[in-house]
Amino acid sequence: MTQNTPPKTGLRRNTANYGDPDFALYLRKTFAKSMGYSNAMLERPVVGIVDTGSDYNNCHRTVPELIEAVKRGVLAAGGLPLAFPTVSLCEPSLFPTSMHFRNLAALDTEAMLSGQPMDSAVLIGGCDKTVPAQLMAAASSDMPSVQLVTGPMLATAFQGERLAACTDCRRYWAQYRAGKVSGERIAEIEGRLATTAGTCGVMGTASTMACIAEALGMMPAGHGSIPAVHADRLRAAEEAGALAVRLIANPIRPSELITAKSVENALRVLLALGGSTNALIHLTAIAGRLGIPISLARLNELSDTTPVLVDLKPTGDGYMEDFHSAGAMPALLWELKDLLHLDVIDVTGATLGDRLAKAPEFVDRRYIRARAEPVSPVGGIVSLFGSLAPRGAILKRSAATESLFETEARAVVFDGLEDLSNRIDDPDLDVTEHDILVLKNAGPLTPAGMPEAGYLPIPSKLARAGVKDMVRMSDCRMSGTAFGTIVLHITPEAAAGGPLALVQSGDRIRLSVKERSLELLVSDAELAERLKSWVPPAKPKRGWDRIVAEQVLQADEGCDLAVLRAEG
Length: 568
Ligand code: FES
Fold this sequence. Notes:
By secondary structure, this protein is an alpha/beta fold.
C-alpha cells in the first residue's frame, strides 16, 4: 500500500488471494449481490455480528431478536450489519463439559473475526463459556468489538418463594438426595426453575462474566445485568450496533481496554460480587491472550482488601434482576471507587473516573451493600498453596462453611468421575462427615475436561443424616451457582503428575484458610515411592480431544491452549 492508498474497509478487507485483488473484490460483490444488497449498502463499513443462537442453547433463545436489534443500530448509524454463526456452548448440553470446548469457540470466533471482511464486531454471548471465548477471540484478533450478552432469566414466584436456575436446582436436588423432597415434588419443581429466556438467574458464571466484561470496558456501563426479557435488553443491543459503527471511525481496540489495570479492576469486581470461581480461570485466559499474567498470590492480596458487597445467590439471597434494579455495576463500581484504577477507558472512550464522577441516584442496599456494611469484609475467593497444590488451588470462602476453614482430616479418595459415581452412595463406603472427600483425574488434561464436578455430592448416607457440607477437593471446577467448602483447581492436576495423583484414602490433609495452605501430610519418601508406580493417562488418538490433550494449560494459566496464548 502506498502512502496515499486509503485503508481497506468493509468488503475490501481480507479479500481472497487469487493474485488479483480487484478480481477477488469483484467476485465477492458478485456473490453478495445474490443476497439482494445494493451497491450503496455494499460500500458501507461492515459490522460483523457473532451469532451464537442454537437450538441446543436455551440461554441464547433471544439471540435472533437481539441480532435484529443490533442490525437496527448498525443500519441507522450508517454501517452494514453481517451476522455469522460460531460455535455455541450451553452448559447442560455438552459432553464431557462445555469447558472442553471453550477454546474451540474462542478459536472459531478469532478466525472468523480475523478472516472475514469487517471493520468492527458485536459479540453476542451469554451462557458461561461463550462470553470468555468471545473476549479471548476479541483480544487475540484485536478487532474493535462490543460485547453484548443475552442477559439473565427472571426468577419465578412459586408457592411463597422465588426460584431460578441454578442455585435453587442444587438446593432442591440436595434435599431430594437427603430424602426430604419426594420424586413427585422434584419433578414438579423441574418445570419452575427456569421459566424465562436468559442465562442463570443468580451470580453464577454467566452473570459474573457479564459483569467482568463490563469491568473490562468491553460493554457500556449497566448493560451486563439487564434481564433477558426486558425491553432494555433490546435497546442495549441497538446501542451496541450503533456503538460498533462509531468504533470504526474511532477505533478502540480490545488491547486498549484489556490492560493490567482493567484486569485488576475486574479481579476486584469478581471478589466484590462473590462471583464464580470459574471466572478466575476465564479472566486468566483472556488476560493471557494479551500477555497479562494473573498471580494467585496477588489474588490473595486483593481478596484481603476487597469486601463482598453483592448479596445474591449462591453467596446471599437475591437474584440477578434484584442486582440490576438495585443499581447494577455502576453502583458496585461506585462503592469500590477508591480501590479501582480510574484511568482505564471503556468501549465508549470514557474513563472509569468520568463514569464515576457522580454518585448513583439510587442503590438498593439489600443487594448492593455500602462499604461500611459489607456482606463480608474480605473477598469471596482465596487461593491456597502447599504440598498438595504447589501451583495453587482456590476456595470460594463466601459460599463455604466457616467452621470448616481450619480442617485436618482423613482423605476419602475417588480416582475419577466413574469411581465417584460408583461408590459415593455405597452404604458401605468408609466415610464420616469429618473426612475430606478428594476427587482426582478430572482436570483439564483428562478426557473429563475439567467439568463442574468439584461440588462432590455429600454421600447419601451422610446427607440423610443431615450433613449439609463437608470439605471436598479436586482438580476440577465448580458451577458458579454452587456452594460448600470446596477446594478447586488443584494445580498441577493429577493427570499432570501433581501431588494430587499420589493421594490415597487414609492420608491426612490439612486445609487452613487462615494460612492459605493446603498440605498433604505424607512424607516425601513415601510420595517418591508412590510416584514410581504412577502412570500418566493415555492421550486421545485424534481430533479436538487430541489437540486439547497436547495443548491445554493448567488452571493457573487459564486452561487456554498453549498455541493460542500471546506468546503462542
Ligand atoms: Fe447457561 Fe447457566 S446454563 S448460564
